[in-house]
Design goal:
It is elongated, with a radius of gyration of 37 Å. The chain has about 400 residues and is α/β, with parallel strands linked by helices. The protein is built from 12 helices and 14 strands. A 7-stranded parallel beta sheet has the order 3-2-1-4-5-6-13, with helices on both faces. Strands 7, 8, 9, 10, 11, 12 and 14 form a 7-stranded mixed beta sheet that branches. Helices cover about 50% and strands about 15% of the residues.
Length: about 400
Amino acid sequence: MMNNKGNSTCAKGTSKVNNIDRTDGISNWVLKITICNRVEVIRMRVPILRYMGMSAAIFCLLLCMACGMSNADSAGSQPRIALITPAGTGELAEAIRLGAEAAAKEAGAELITVEAFPSEGLTYAPSNPDFTAGQGKVKQEHLQNGTYPLSEREQAQVDAVSLALEQGASALLIDPLSEKTLSDIIEKAQTKDANGVIIPVILLNDEFPVKGITSVISIDNVEAGRQAGQAMAVLLGGRGRIALLGPDPVNPVLINRELGIKESLAQYPDIHVEAQSVCSTRDACWQASKQLLDQQQVDGLIALQEPASLGVADELNRRTSENNGNKVKIVGFGSEQQQLEQLQEGRIQHLIVQNGFSAGYLGVNQAVARLNNQQVQARVTLETKLVSTDNMFWMDNQKLLFPFVQ
């Protein structure tokens, strides 16, 4: 309407030039031409400005849509979480893996498991797109009864981490063999990923004092030691001699277990704790227990780790068959199948058992929380239970001991 009115005014002004005073007419004529030209320029600029404004608005809209699509893609992409286990397999490792798989499936994450064996040819297998678990490991025939030196097994675990990072792992779940192994793994994880983010490391079943750990999922080993000590005191009726058997005592896990045992037994003045015998494999612990029982009168043995309890049970089984009697009591830690068999047969009286399924499940949850910039717990403490022949077949304990049986 404004443009039509302007054109009409310009036309009328031009038709009146011949009917007015010449001087005034020329001035008015020049003025009106100038006004008309400006009106015309404005009339031409308005659509241009409107077009430019609309173009800018459309550009901003498209930009916002692109950002939204990018964020949606980023949020919708599956985080890849790697579970690194020590050399060898066992029921606890299997329970951890099953728990991690369950949590990854719920969270929409991709889980890859890498079992670190001390051998060349460590392989990686991507996860099944229909599920969340992939697995990488070397062939079992490379193992020699688990007798590889610690240094080789440590390096194999570090190599497994390198492999997982090469395959795009955005978080690591680690059950490390040693403090040195964990330190090397943390150093590798400190290298930022493609997005400039440091890889979070979730520690399982250990308490090594290494900086850079995102979260620790572990039992309270002092409390577990108290449970073991109390169980042994009850077995001995508050009187007797006890020996401890296990790996290198500099391990924080073993230090805390021994501390808890001694705290618990301190209230029993008639129970005496002998010096600890150090062994790390089943055969070595069998020899250590044989030597110990040959040299000292011992009423009870507390095995701080799985191989120790199996080695002690082997020696006591031998002595029982030879002497037709065995009065030495065993309390151990772990829930390996062979331990449960020894428990059921009465060679081991009690086992302190942890929930491996929960360790894997909560470990993945903590990793996903960190990747989503949510709050992460620095430490998650798992419950332990005292299992014996009297309660090992209870429903709750069956789920604890056999989480892979659904």
